[in-house]
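User: Can you recover a sequence for this backbone? Please restate the input before giving your answer.

Assistant: Of course. Working from this structure:
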């Protein structure tokens, strides 16, 4: 396999992670936990923390679906999902919401273990008193053993109770976003070319982390081309030249972090040009001296 730009980094881990979750394996056990931090009243916008308990095992990835259900399907409305402070730094599939079901694949190089590993936060608006259920569906973690050994997530439901409305409704998420004045952390842009990815075209890979409100989106500026909104991978428009590339990461409060991939000029080429210039300069000097002698 030809691989001119590839090196072991976060992108490499993503490939290993995706391959690992497809390998049949021995089954152990782990649990999904839910924590709301504060009581929830109808009319509030609250944060539901989704945790993983690995029961002492070291895991490097988790894959699955979490569902939110109530009898009337009207007690809550999912407004957003945040990865702020998640234990996982790599997301081959960021949490995606569809019909009150959140599917995801997350991972962390080197693995982690613990009783309260934060996966992600669910921001929801609750509309009326009652209760709803959060259920893990086919969620599987994978041990950091190089074998893709699975750690079965026990399908235990969590019940969230919603109290009667109070005089002053609260928006916990807006409080966090409003107080977030910290930009995302610095991040690296990796240039990659692999014949098995994107038809062998050059592309860049990147992922920023924000521990306040979480990453909202990215924008990419490639050379002279217009700025475009992008995901964690971006296929280069210009496959022949090596233009400077700028990636802007936005968090959900609007703070930004900028990373630039500069085109590296070949030092040997620069030396060659300098030698040619010096050589031409010497020739011109000799020519002028010879011309002056003839005139004399």
């Amino acid at each position: 396999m030809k691989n001119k730009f590839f090196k072991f980094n976060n992108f490499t881990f993503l490939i290993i992670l995706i391959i690992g979750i497809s390998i049949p394996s021995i089954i152990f056990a782990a649990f999904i936990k839910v924590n709301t931090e504060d009581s929830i009243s109808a009319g509030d916008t609250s944060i539901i923390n989704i945790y993983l308990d690995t029961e002492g095992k070291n895991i490097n990835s988790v894959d699955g679906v979490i569902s939110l259900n109530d009898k009337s399907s009207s007690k809550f409305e999912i407004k957003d999902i945040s990865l702020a402070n998640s234990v996982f730094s790599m997301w081959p599939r960021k949490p995606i919401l569809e019909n009150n079901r959140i599917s995801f694949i997350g991972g962390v190089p080197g693995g982690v273990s613990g009783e309260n590993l934060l996966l992600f936060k669910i921001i929801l608006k609750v509309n009326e008193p009652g209760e709803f259920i959060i259920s893990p569906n086919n969620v599987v973690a994978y041990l950091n053993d190089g074998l893709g050994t699975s750690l079965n997530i026990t399908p235990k439901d969590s019940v969230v109770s919603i109290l009667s409305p109070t005089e002053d409704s609260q928006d916990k998420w807006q409080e966090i976003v409003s107080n977030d004045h910290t930009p995302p952390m610095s991040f690296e842009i990796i240039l990659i070319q692999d014949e098995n990815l994107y038809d062998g075209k050059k592309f860049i890979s990147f992922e920023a982390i924000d521990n306040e409100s979480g990453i909202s989106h990215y924008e990419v500026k490639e050379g002279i081309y217009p700025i475009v909104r992008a995901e964690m991978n971006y296929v280069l428009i210009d496959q022949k030249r090596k233009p400077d590339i700028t990636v802007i990461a936005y968090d959900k409060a609007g703070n930004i972090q900028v990373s630039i991939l500069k085109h590296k000029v070949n030092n040997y080429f620069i030396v060659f040009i300098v030698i040619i210039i010096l050589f031409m300069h010497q020739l011109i000097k000799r020519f002028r001296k010879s011309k002056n002698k003839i005139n004399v």
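That completes the design. The domain at 190-261 is CATH 2.60.40 (Immunoglobulin-like).
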